[in-house]
Amino acid sequence: MDYKPDYQVLNRVPHAYLEVSGYKAMSRKSTSDACKHESLLFTPSPYAAQAGYCTPTAHQRLVAASVPTPASSSPKSKAKGASGPQNRSTAAFPAPLVLPGDDLAEESEDSQQGVSEWLKMKERNSVTSRKKVVYVVAPPATEDDVDFIPTWSHPEMPNDLVDSIAAPRFEDLMKYLEAFYHGLMVEQLQSANLSFTSWEEGSSIVGKGKAKFATPHYIGLNTFKECIRIRTRGRAGSAYTRQLNLDDLLDVAISILPADAYALLLLIEHDLFEDDDDEFVCGRAYGGSRVAVISTARYHPVLDAAQNVERNHAWPASHCAAYTRACCSEAVQSRPPVKKRSKIHRGGQRKSDPITLSSSASSSVGEIRLRPLEAAVSAHAALPSLNSNNSPVEALSGLWLGRVCRTASHELGHCFGIAHCVYYACVMQGSASLTEDARQPPYLCPVDLAKLLRATGADANERYRALLAFCNEHTDTHLFVAFAKWLNCQLGKTHS
């Protein structure tokens, strides 16, 4: 999807998603726990060529990640004058998988945005001495007149774990974003004082008595200066009783944006919708307006089975060769080939050869020297399976937190003008489903990292160390344990 300064959507899932995505379950569900992820795929899947995705060449990726200098006048000179992190190996930054149903397999309009294109964007906002704070807003409170609203964020599922799995702590999300956007101030917007209240049709007067119905078409959201109407809807068969309108919540975010804010993220616990065609949406950013809203609702682990979300093959194990083959097999056999699109100009398609986990080198794990992705997969595989009925509640809470952290960093990235990534597996990739979302990494690829470092003025190693410190505080969370190994490899690579 091309970057549009006031329109970015993550996980916009069509109404028919759960029905049309049945092939994703296949037979691999029964073998997921037994998989050892012994071979990894660093290139796009075999399905990518059939879908029309053309992999960029090494030179194209180098040029895309290069920060031009005043003396640079050609792509070749820009590449020579590149600055910033230099470890761009596929061992650290593999290609996007491009599996059936993925954003890059379905979207023909995604185009490349290198650092040079990003710098030339007229709509891009620069960090300045007056606008340099990233604000994060906690989920709104609920006033007594609408005390039924918290029930809307409770999944309608007969599962004992619904109430046992702790929701992501706001403080943990704040700490993660402080590390991810190292170099900028990341602060909670304490003055927002948001609270849900009743809405009187045709009036903005708030709190006029107890709401008569537990399913109102509108509710109010009080800010420190006004009450804004929020549309709601119920949807038959949905995991949640009622959803809130995303566009209305983005209006709230814009209305409370402080004068010194570079960007603002509003966290919502309720399920969201955007229009009648949506089953749900997880988040969206108005890049030009520097605001984003994300929901934690659909990332609740109790919904994983119903939403075809794979836990044991979530990142980094999403690059497991056996898993990608299972994802591709049915679609490759049943879908006719399509004409290749020029998503990446003259990129060509690299051969999709898996690499065996034990036959590589770069960072030590025991007696074996592993490269970044391989080290991350080894760490992931060493932890207890999350598909078990006896999975620790703490690990499932961490699973939920990791998903929210990744989405929050993605949406705020759009506020920096960063478009969906097509060069590498990257946290800034677009997501066509929650299935794909779980497969994506938490890191920025070399192209998008160069953009962020240019925007924030941060040092790549200092940023990696800040992220590593956060991950080391969450040793019961698969994503952060794996990310810590990946980060250690990157820091070791730089120091060697």
Question: What can you tell me about this protein's structure?
Answer:
Mean pLDDT is 82; it is low at 1-31, 72-85, 202-208, 337-351 and 358-368. The protein is an alpha/beta fold and 496 residues long. The chain is 31% helix and 14% strand. A six-stranded mixed β-sheet has the order 1-14-15-11-4-6, with helices on both faces. Strand 14 (283-286) and strand 15 (291-295) form a beta hairpin.
Largest sheet: 6 strands, mixed
- Report, as a whole number of angstroms, the end-to-end distance: 38 Å
Q: In DSSP terms, counting alpha (H) and pi (I) runs of 4 or more, how many helices?
A: 16
| Strand count | 18
Strand order of the largest sheet: 1-14-15-11-4-6
Question: Hey, roughly how much beta strand do the residues contain?
Answer: 5-15%
Radius of gyration: 22 Å
Query: How confident is the prediction overall: mean pLDDT?
Result: 82
Given helix and strand content, the structural type is: alpha/beta
The backbone outline, from C-alpha atoms, is globular
Helix content: 25-40%
Low-confidence stretches: 1-31, 72-85, 202-208, 337-351, 358-368
List the helices and strands and how they pair.
Layout: E1 8-10, E2 13-14, H1 17-20, H2 28-31, E3 39-41, H3 46-51, H4 58-65, H5 75-80, H6 103-106, H7 115-120, E4 133-137, E5 141-142, H8 170-180, E6 185-188, E7 195-197, E8 218-222, E9 227-233, E10 243-245, H9 246-255, E11 261-268, E12 272-273, E13 278-280, E14 283-286, E15 291-295, H10 321-334, E16 354-356, E17 363-365, E18 368-370, H11 372-382, H12 393-415, H13 434-439, H14 446-456, H15 460-471, H16 478-495
Parallel strand pairs: 4-6, 4-11, 5-7, 10-12, 11-15
Antiparallel strand pairs: 1-14, 2-13, 3-16, 7-8, 8-9, 9-10, 14-15, 17-18
